[in-house]
Amino acid sequence: MTDNKNYDQLLYKRKNAWSEIGEKETEETSSFCRDYAKFLDASKTEREFAQNTVTLLEEEGYISLKSAFGANQKLHQGDKVYYSAGGKSVIMAVIGKESLGKGINMLGSHIDSPRLDLKQVPVFEDTDLAYLKTHYYGGVRKYQWLSIPLSLHGTIIRGDGEKIDVNIGEDDGDPVFVITDLLPHLAKDQNEKKLGEAFPAESLNILAGSVPMDAGDAKHTVKLRVLNLLNKKYGIVEKDLVNAELEVVPAFKSRDIGLDRGLMGAYGHDDRVCSYAGLRAILAAGITKKTSLCYLSDKEEIGSVGTTGAQSDILEYFIGMLLKLTEGKSGDLDVKHVLYNSVMLSGDVNAAVDPAFKSVHEKNNAMYLGKGVGISKYTGSRGKAGASDASAELMYMITKMLDDNQIIWQVGELGKTDEGGGGTIAKFAAKLGIEVLDVGVPLLGMHSPFEVASKVDIYMCYKAFKTFLENA
User: Fold this and answer.
1) Domain carrying residue 210
2) Quick one: which H or E segment has residue 346?
3) Based on the domain organization, do 25 and 103 belong to the same domain?
4) Is the pLDDT score of 1 beyond 80?
5) What's this model's pTM, rounded to 2 decimal places?
6) Residue 318 burial (CB < 10 Å; 0-12/13-18/19+)?
7) Omega of the bond prior to 171 within 30 degrees of 0, cis?
8) What tens digit of pLDDT does each residue of 49-62 get?
9) Has residue 196 been placed in a domain?
10) Mean pLDDT within 259-287
11) Is 372 in a helix, a strand, or coil?
């Protein structure tokens, strides 16, 4: 090879994505993120995200795959279908030009986020104040949920069987909730405890009421007033809460951050930012060579368990129905043949370097805000335990595709080797025989009530997903 003295070509350099895009793409970035912010603010739980996704899909001409299967409706190139599992996860697909046996280009991500769930018997009274007991969901730093406005979302099945949707704290006229913190003047003992021990889980009680009800000689009259207000609004009694799924989330909305508005702060970036990017990508990609699929799963934050998580057989079930309606076959071997010829981009967030906490990262193999969509060859912790580790061939295919389409990307891992780590749904896709690579948006403050992402990274994630569906 001739030495052309252009030594810069020997180096891998991260690029500031803002410096690489022009005025037109800058406006596209802003427009995309404005739409994302609206969708995110209306989708603070997995149920809401799933329902809003189905609404959007139906507006775009998608039909229920389950209904099509029940009617034995033949599917053809260009047909658009979706399946919603328990109202908490959604799979959608567009039938491509090639046979399913040649594989599917898949996007996968999750729509659940760390939060607080109400316990089954949540309402209690103490010192003439009414509270709601919680059980935290996913990896939260408990102190971050104190002294911020909170809202209550979810579903209650009433005694008469009617399903009631609950959303309190989002509208301007709504009351909000809060978990109170200890004042610094009296926090001497608390300050001496380790951070993980200073805020016991059983102390994360939601302040829900303070005015007693005129109920004669009845006890717990503040609790009674809270229950009475719920009864008037939703027609429920305390026993109905046993049947409920009620989630406590931050009451504030997404906001631009910084005078230049280049960053976006919000609750639920992890992992609704990749889910929204995937949803928009499949809507924009149209009819592609291979069938396109986007899988929005639930329960990732607690191990992808349950009937709506990525460890379930939802994806296999969906592909089996697709095969039956397109090619008239759906045997186990037929489904496996599709899976083993498929490729997935597992969309999940990663940790960006925070200048205040640089020591937890190894700078050459970390991600940074504004450097484009992030690629993680492997996940897991310490010795890659629990990892999905993508092949060199898949890494080359994806990075070359992104380069060929002028999409700014970066590589990185989740912290120093022995610092911690984490996982995604990638390992569950890999277990099915799918070639899979983690691709997503770097964040500051991941798992906090107000995570921070760069708008240009969000847009590059969308472009990467769309390009993959169109070209892989």
Assistant:
1) 115-250
2) strand 343-347
3) yes
4) no
5) 0.96
6) buried
7) no
8) 999 999 999 999 99
9) yes
10) 97
11) coil
